């Protein structure tokens, strides 16, 4: 029967089917400052892959998330150490 | 697959609130380390993580609304209430500084020479750059309204032009204020006049920068087709904020700049 792909190759029905209509309300008369990529992004972000919205785009999202986590958690530990040291009485 | 039976938005689990709280801890502790121990590493860490959290949190809101369609009219109503309440809280914030100004200027103490402006203070001429700044902000209020009308009429090119003009006027104001700050004959340390002047106008200037940034993000989203003629609350929120900044300036101008000279 062959291996079934993990992600269905046919695009799943958009959960909010009307959203595609919204973006095309504006007249796409000229290519003034770029093409409308919103429908493609809508498809991307509505994929039923179980990913939360902050990681939905994959690798770039993961990198940013991990960087932010490293800075905040690492910073909090550094902060607690610095506050502990600052709270020690200074001997004259 | 089960679908929700209500029109509210149950958000995906997100790390940004707790990371934001941590960033606030780092920023405040960083200020302490900078003030008292002359060390700026923690402060820089704090500001950097704050910016990262803000960028990602708001990016996610754009994803949830424009790309995933979660912002139903009910959700939008909640966002409107939220923005109004936030702006109201900012109004109270400025009210405090106006109170401080009037406390000192309505009954000037003998130490000030029993007069306002105090003895020795040469206030800025309200009919020079401050008047120009007033005209700039009023004009920017017109252009942002023009942008809004263009969006509701579906006129993308005009909306882009009007919003760009608004942002440029905002930058012009900031540049002129910066120059005024540099050239002013008095400083923040010059008694209660300097303190009230620079703290009130300084916080206002910060809000102009925040408002200009908000409008710039809206311009980017406008160009990327995120807004529709009937659904563009992000822009409306930015426009409300901008009008608020304009109104605060008008109060500042009339009280501190004009009456206070």
Automatic annotation (TrEMBL), chain A:
GO cellular component term of the entry, any: respiratory chain complex IV
Pfam families: COX7a
Primary localization: mitochondrion
Biological process per Gene Ontology, one example term: regulation of oxidative phosphorylation
Transmembrane segments: 63-86
Membrane disposition: Single-pass membrane protein
Subcellular location: Mitochondrion inner membrane
CDD domains, A to Z: Cyt_c_Oxidase_VIIa
UniProt KW keywords: Membrane, Mitochondrion, Mitochondrion inner membrane, Transit peptide, Transmembrane, Transmembrane helix
Keyword Membrane: yes
Family per similarity comment: Belongs to the cytochrome c oxidase VIIa family.
PANTHER family: CYTOCHROME C OXIDASE POLYPEPTIDE 7A (PTHR10510), CYTOCHROME C OXIDASE SUBUNIT 7A-RELATED PROTEIN, MITOCHONDRIAL (PTHR10510:SF2)
Name under which the protein is recorded: Cytochrome c oxidase subunit 7A2-like, mitochondrial
Gene source species: Podiceps cristatus
Lineage: Eukaryota, Metazoa, Chordata, Craniata, Vertebrata
Automatic annotation (TrEMBL), chain B:
Gene Ontology molecular functions: cytochrome-c oxidase activity
Coiled coil: none
Transmembrane segments: 16-35, 41-58, 79-102, 159-179, 191-220, 240-260
GO cellular component labels: mitochondrial inner membrane
Stretches assigned to the Heme-copper oxidase subunit III family profile domain: 4-261
Keywords: Membrane, Mitochondrion, Mitochondrion inner membrane, Translocase, Transmembrane, Transmembrane helix
Compartmental location: Mitochondrion inner membrane
Catalytic activity of the protein: 4 Fe(II)-[cytochrome c] + O2 + 8 H(+)(in) = 4 Fe(III)-[cytochrome c] + 2 H2O + 4 H(+)(out)
CDD domains assigned to the protein according to its UniProt record, in alphabetical order: Cyt_c_Oxidase_III
One example of a Gene Ontology biological process annotation: mitochondrial electron transport, cytochrome c to oxygen
One protein family per Pfam: COX3
Membrane topology: Multi-pass membrane protein
Function field: Component of the cytochrome c oxidase, the last enzyme in the mitochondrial electron transport chain which drives oxidative phosphorylation. The respiratory chain contains 3 multisubunit complexes succinate dehydrogenase (complex II, CII), ubiquinol-cytochrome c oxidoreductase (cytochrome b-c1 complex, complex III, CIII) and cytochrome c oxidase (complex IV, CIV), that cooperate to transfer electrons derived from NADH and succinate to molecular oxygen, creating an electrochemical gradient over the inner membrane that drives transmembrane transport and the ATP synthase.
Family: Belongs to the cytochrome c oxidase subunit 3 family.
Name of the protein described by the UniProt record: Cytochrome c oxidase subunit 3
Organism: Podiceps cristatus (Great crested grebe)
